[in-house]
Design goal:
It is built from six helices and nine strands. It is of the alpha/beta class. The chain has helices spanning 10-20, 35-39, 84-94, 126-129, 141-150, 155-163; strands spanning 2-3, 24-29, 41-47, 50-59, 70-75, 96-97, 100-101, 106-112, 135-136. Helices cover 28% and strands 25% of the residues. It folds into two domains: 2-38 and 65-138, Rossmann fold (3-Layer(aba) Sandwich); 140-177, no CATH class. The strands form three sheets. The protein has a five-stranded parallel β-sheet with strand order 2-5-8-1-9, with helices on one face. The protein has a two-stranded antiparallel ribbon with strand order 3-4.
């Protein structure tokens, strides 16, 4: 679980790790989903032994990985409505939800904003929180400088930030709406 202020680059870090390790990358913004978007939709299926009755099965969403190797990134975990972490918890802990099974060579990573940033986050349930390795991300000019030169960001921007380093990342939770 990666924690940090809004705009710090949490998603970019995970994407870069995937790219550098030749892994597929799926970024799922949990705050924008309903529970059935992740767990899938229930569909009635006739019971082969009894044509009058049936059973239901779950059709998983198409965006979940089926093969290969990669990082399934459950982004904005603690911004999702309180019912979503329960669905995500099953996916994270059991590596399945409904009829869907996470492929063996896929890693599940998550990220979220901190409570002190006043970003409309929910408290993470303890059974979910204690299953993670928690990492905090902070702005770092030297890391940005390496990123900027590799990403072909204009050197004048880097020079300006070398002179005015506090402007690398400014976030005032009192000003957030």
């Amino acid at each position: 679980m990666i924690w940090g202020a809004p705009g710090i680059g949490k998603s970019s870090i995970v994407s870069q790790v995937a790219r550098e390790n030749n892994l597929d990358f799926i970024d799922v913004r949990l705050s924008q989903l309903a529970p059935t978007d992740l767990s899938g939709l229930p569909v009635a299926v006739p019971d082969e032994n009894d044509t009058q009755k049936g059973i239901s099965t779950w059709y998983p969403p198409e965006f979940l990985p089926r093969k290969g190797k990669g990082i399934l990134f459950l982004n904005e975990l603690n911004m999702a409505p309180p019912v979503m972490p329960g669905v995500a918890q099953q996916l994270i802990l059991d590596r399945d939800v409904g009829s869907y099974q996470v492929p063996e060579n896929w890693f599940i990573w998550t990220a979220g904003n901190r409570k002190e940033d006043r970003t409309s986050v929910f408290e993470m349930p303890a059974p979910l929180a204690n299953r993670f390795l928690h990492l905090s991300v902070e702005p770092d000019f030297d890391s940005f400088k390496m990123y900027a030169f590799n990403g072909k960001i204009d050197e004048q921007i880097v020079a300006f930030l070398a002179y005015r380093t506090p402007l690398l990342h400014q976030f005032d939770p009192q000003q957030s709406s």
